[in-house]
Amino acid sequence: MGKERILRPIKRIHGGMFLPHLKNTADTESVVMPPPNEVRIPMLQHIGAPAEPAVKVGDKVFVGTLIGKAAGRVSASVHSSVSGTVKAIEQITSGGRDIACAVIESDGLMEKDPSLKPFTVQTAEDIAAAAAECGLVGLGGAGFPTSVKLSVKDSNIDTLIINGAECEPYITSDYRECIENYNDVINGVYLLKEKLGVKRVIICIESNKEKAITKLYTVATDERDTDDTVKLMQLPTSYPQGAEKVIIYSATGRFVPAGKLPSDVGCIVMNITSVATLYRFISTGMPLVSKRITVDGTAVKEPKNVIVPIGTKISDLLDFAGGIKDDAAEIIMGGPMMGVDVCDKDAVIEKRNNAVTVMSERVKEPETGPCIHCGRCAGVCPMKLYPSMVDAALNHGAFDKLKNMNINYCMECGSCSFVCPAKRPLTQVMRLAKSELRRKA
Amino acid sequence: MREILSVSSSPHIRHHETTCGIMTDVVIALMPSAVFGCILFGFKAAAVLITCVVVAVLSEYVWDKALKKPNSVKDMSAVVTGLLLGMNLPSAIPLWQAAIGSVFAIIVVKQMFGGIGCNFANPAIAARIMLLVSFPASMTRFMEPISDTVSSATPLLYAGGEKSFVHPFKTLFFGMHAGSIGETSAFLLLVGALYLIVRRIISPVIPACFIGTVALLSLISGENPVISVFGGGLILGAVFMATDYTTSPASLLGKAIFGVGCGIVTFVIRKFGALTEGVSYAILLMNILVPYIDRFTLSKPFGYIKPGKEKAE
Asked: What number is the ipTM of this complex?
């Protein structure tokens, strides 16, 4: 007990770098967005198979009503985020696939579905079932269905890692979750620990989020923790600290071999907001229907965290958050390092989103120069790869060389592009090399 | 807000550091000893430095124009090459010879192999060796500091200890002795090195291994390590030339091997060769070996398992 509870990282990963934190929204209370006139809820907001629509046009739905049923082993249910009427079931193109999308006209009342009731959890299977009912996916950004993650049966699993690193610039949604809903976080942690039967739980938070650490520390030190198995760990603030393999290495010293899963080294990693959301579902029965989104970036007038109904159009969200400046040129789903640009202001907020970053037109970027072999890309790569050599091999079309460069270890964290003094698009090169290799194979 | 959004691949932010910025930092780090060299050896030294820089930049510009390539002068690398070459020359060298050196460095060593990032050897080093081979007389005619008298040699000649003449440590360290324009003041060169290390432009591994190896070997063989380290071009070479990104290995282990290798070759040339100075030959030789060092020292990725091992499981 006592000071013992805040741990130091076991191992420090190769590479990593210091990014500007830009956590402008860290100290502002989140605001709840009123329901927009219309939400468009895609059936695929996760990795895996899309859900099957469970409502017809004209159906009356409430907040929390099931509108998409998980289809297949790796899939997640989808719930209505507003009360109102289903106006249409449309086909939209998302990520190159045709996805059904429920268009719901809101009646503005936000009535809760009367059938929602707290979920009783007795066993580990019940936890996985709860995650499935909740429609929970990895809220850190990956969007992997949590129920699948939690139903892995492996007696070797001894550690639950709660990922609150949040290493991207701007984003503070997990941080605000720790501050505003710390009880849900801690209760969720204890519940998971008890039901999953893990030996220890490590809550990992970066050192620049001191308030979150202090907050959770005071709450966590209570009588439930008799055997002292829930620990907080203060990780160094370095990018990409929150990547799954990186955080496992920092927290336990174990490394996940290529092509293996965290469960293979006895770990389960869950995002801190996922844990809180799961607890809220179990205690109230309200599935995942809204998400705290950090709205920030150089072109946002008033950076803030907004609790947004899922399926809200980005343009509605930005209007509510105070609008964007005239020089806005780029809307990014997610943070500036790994986020994906949207080409359409009508794109909607999904479960796995945690930020909308709007950037001004870039200050004229220096043109790309030749590689000077400074080694910075290799120096920051958390996977110890050599992006500059991949770049050269790709340019020369040396595919036999590419094969031996372990390109599939790359998680596209963007560090190599970020540091490159010649401004070479190295992360893009890695993606290209991956797809080239797939094509040739 | 405009209706057309720009869409690009992540990451959407970049570090502010540029190639030009790195090169400028190197120039800044070289400045103290360059200015000191001009004070020490007078107007002639300044003329040599300016000639080298101007000719290097002009060569780069003319090459780009002639081959209709994008203008690469603005990345500052030609300035670094010219300045480094000038600092490696004695102040008494005829200016036309210095100019030939600059042209050789930029055109033959750098641009003919593909320009910045593609050269197999450090252009300044290669040009210095070319001049040494072509004009041995003027390349070894060193001036005494502040005066106009020709010195017999740099302090390095006395490292063997056979001759009685020994410079006091202070003279050596602060650079009040004969030598090339930019190599004399170990103190100012180390200030520059510190600047580059603090700004994270270079890693201290290569200079430390290089200088350490020379000092250790001199000590073992009974030479005066102080003169070996501070008397010649070792510090200039180890800090500013051996650390050239393009011509040094990528991994930490590779850098260490490279540094130690440079040290050994330098020592062997100085001790057993006919030349008093061996730094530039050592660096050139090791430059050529870099691809081989790289091949054997590149680190394996995080979480790597040998392909064969995985199947055995």
From this structure: 0.86
